[in-house]
Amino acid sequence: MPLNSKQIRAVSYDPETQVLHAKFAGRSSVRHVGVPPHIYDNLVETSDPEFYYKYYLEPSRIESGWQKANLSSHAVKLLIILIGVLAITATALEENGELPIHLSEITETGAISPAPTASPTVSPH
């Protein structure tokens, strides 16, 4: 359905799945899921489709070319961070599987107190 708008060229809507596609001038189309039929009807009938879209539909945008790339780049960054945290944790563990810092070494302020050093024992001989 073409719209009387300079930016939003056309929209299509499937009432069974409640999926709305919006085609923009100079951009890829955007897909919205869970759009009630009255929102589509109002968008098509309004005198200002750009305002109506921005107010009622833009916050629910779930898929566009830009967002797909953005989501996958965030997923890759999250995976890299997770691998880094696991590597740091694994290298911080002692051979027996315990962290080298013990709870008794942490002071009330949260700082790590220096480990007690064993005094050399002097033999009487």
Descriptive overview:
It is a single chain. With 125 residues, this protein is α+β, with helices and mostly antiparallel strands. 37% of the residues lie in helices and 14% in strands. The chain is built from 3 helices and 3 strands, in the order E-E-E-H-H-H. The protein has helices spanning 37-45, 49-57, 65-92; strands spanning 8-14, 19-24, 30-33. It has a 3-stranded antiparallel β-sheet with strand order 1-2-3, with helices on one face. Strand 2 and strand 3 form a beta hairpin. Helix 1 packs antiparallel against helix 2. The longest helix has 28 residues, at 65-92. It starts with 7 loop residues before the first strand and ends in a 33-residue tail after the last helix.
| Shape estimate | elongated
Protein structure class: alpha+beta
**Spatial sequence of strands, sheet with the most strands:** 1-2-3
Number of helices: 3
Question: What is the radius of gyration computed over CA atoms, rounded to a whole number of angstroms?
Answer: 30 Å
Terminal CA distance: 102 Å
The fraction of residues assigned to DSSP E strands is 5-15%
Overall pLDDT score = 74
Low-confidence stretches: 63-69
Proportion in helices: 25-40%
Largest sheet: 3 strands, antiparallel
